[in-house]
Amino acid sequence: MTTQLGFVSLQVSNLDASRQFYTEVLGFEPLATGQPDACVFATQSGAVFAIRKPLVDLQAADRLGWGVGLWFNVTHLDEFLHRIHGQATLVRGIQATPFGNTAVIADPDGYTLTLLEVPAQ
Fold first, then answer.
1. Backbone angles phi, psi at 83, to 5 degrees
2. CA-to-CA distance for 11 and 15, rounded, in angstroms?
3. Helices (H), 3-121
4. Helix, strand, or coil here: 7?
5. Which pLDDT tens digits describe the chain residue by residue (121 residues)?
6. Which residue in 14, 26, 76, 101 could disulfide with 117, CB within 3.0 to 4.6 Å?
7. Which DSSP string do the residues of 83-105 spell out, in sequence order?
8. Is the Cα dihedral 19, 20, 25, 28 positive or negative?
9. Sheet of 112-117: strands edge to edge?
10. Which DSSP letter does residue 59 get?
11. Residues 20-29: contacts with CB under 8 Å, at least 24 apart
C-alpha cells in the first residue's frame, strides 16, 4: 500500500483577495465547486489544492504556515518572477538547489511558497 498526498488547503484571512492572488498572479484555474467558503484549484498532479475561510483564529498565530513547505512548479522561473513583480512579496530570489532553481514568494497572508523551475512540456 502506498500513501499519496490527496488534498492541501490554506486557511486565509480574506478569501476574495487570496482567490485573486492565486488566480491572477500565480495563474491557478479555479474549479466550479459551489463551495462558498472555499476555492478549489485545478491541478495536473492529482493532488487537490484549495484556499478556504479560516476554521481557526488566524489572528492568534504570530506566523502562518511556519515550518510548512508548499512548492509549486513553474516553467521559466526568471520570466515568471518578472511577470509577478510587484504583485507578490519576493522572500528569496532565484537560487540553485539539488532539485533545480527555486525562488520563494509570500502570498497575501504571508504563507511562503517555493517556486521550482521545471522544464516546459
1. -65, -35
2. 9
3. 15-20, 77-84
4. strand
5. 766 677 899 999 999 999 999 999 999 999 988 889 999 998 887 788 999 999 889 889 888 888 889 999 999 999 999 999 999 999 999 999 999 999 999 999 999 999 999 987 7
6. 101
7. HHBTTBEEEEEEEEETTEEEEEE
8. positive
9. 70-74, 112-117, 100-106, 89-97
10. G
11. 21/87, 21/88, 21/107, 21/108, 22/51, 22/107, 24/87, 25/84, 25/87, 25/88, 26/72, 26/84, 26/88, 26/113
CA–CA distance, 109 with 63 (Å, rounded to integer): 9
| All three cell numbers of 87 | 504583485
